[in-house]
UniProtKB/TrEMBL annotation:
Domain AMP-dependent synthetase/ligase: 51-176
Taxonomy, superkingdom: Eukaryota
Catalytic activity: a medium-chain fatty acid + ATP + CoA = a medium-chain fatty acyl-CoA + AMP + diphosphate
Top enzyme category: ligase
Entry annotated with the keyword Disulfide bond: no
Family per similarity comment: Belongs to the ATP-dependent AMP-binding enzyme family.
Organism: Calonectris borealis
Keyword terms of this UniProt record: ATP-binding, Fatty acid metabolism, Ligase, Lipid metabolism, Nucleotide-binding
UniProt-recorded name of the protein: medium-chain acyl-CoA ligase
PANTHER family per the UniProt record, alphabetical: ACYL-COENZYME A SYNTHETASE, ACYL-COENZYME A SYNTHETASE ACSM5, MITOCHONDRIAL
GO MF annotation list: ATP binding; fatty-acyl-CoA synthase activity; medium-chain fatty acid-CoA ligase activity
């Protein structure tokens, strides 16, 4: 029997195991290159769109104040493609480039993570408790070309900018704009 989660059918563990067993038994072909965003999220989106799979939330986030963000697989795919375009076009990043995200766990964190997976950009997460010295070390050691942060940590990034020769773009997740920064919400 299938257990219900908020009225939606869940994929059974036995179904997941049988899928991987079929790969191990060479009944399914392994892709030469695997990309979680296109090979999993986009496929689940197609299954939901074709009504071959019940609609389940792909992403569900709730903050301390009770604000809620819920995206279907189709919405998550669309938004992550948009975020991937922002990283590629506005930030000028390419496959293999590194981006550091120093954000609290807000929906944009996951969205940018999937966008990086989609484009082959290396996503380096950082806790929002990092100091300017910590951020400088990570930027220098990783040779990141882009940093993504919020209003709270932007001053720390700005204080170490003169020592970050590889950093080409700064993306801020904020309601308002900030001089010298690209604003994710505005670019969307």
């Amino acid at each position: 029997p299938c257990r219900l989660f908020h009225g939606c059918n869940r994929l059974l563990t036995s179904q997941i195991i049988s899928y991987y067993d079929s790969i191990n038994q060479c009944k399914k072909e392994l892709p030469e290159y695997f990309n979680f965003a296109s090979d999993v999220l986009d496929e689940w989106s197609k299954l939901e769109k074709d009504r071959r799979r019940p609609a389940n939330p792909a992403f569900w986030w709730v903050n301390d104040e009770g604000e809620e963000v819920k995206w279907s697989f189709e919405e998550l795919g669309f938004l992550s493609r948009k975020a991937a375009n922002i990283l590629s076009e506005a930030c000028g990043l390419q496959r293999g480039d590194r981006v550091i995200a120093v954000l609290p766990r807000v929906p944009e964190w996951w969205l940018l993570n999937i966008a990086c997976i989609r484009t082959g950009i290396v996503f380096i997460p950082g806790t929002s408790q990092l100091t300017a010295k910590d951020i400088l070390y990570r930027l220098q050691a990783s040779k990141a070309k882009c940093i993504i942060t919020n209003d709270t940590l932007a001053p720390a990034v700005e204080s170490v900018m003169p020592d970050c020769q590889f950093l080409k773009s700064k993306l801020i997740v904020a309601k308002g704009s900030r001089d010298g920064w690209l604003n994710l919400k505005e670019l969307f």
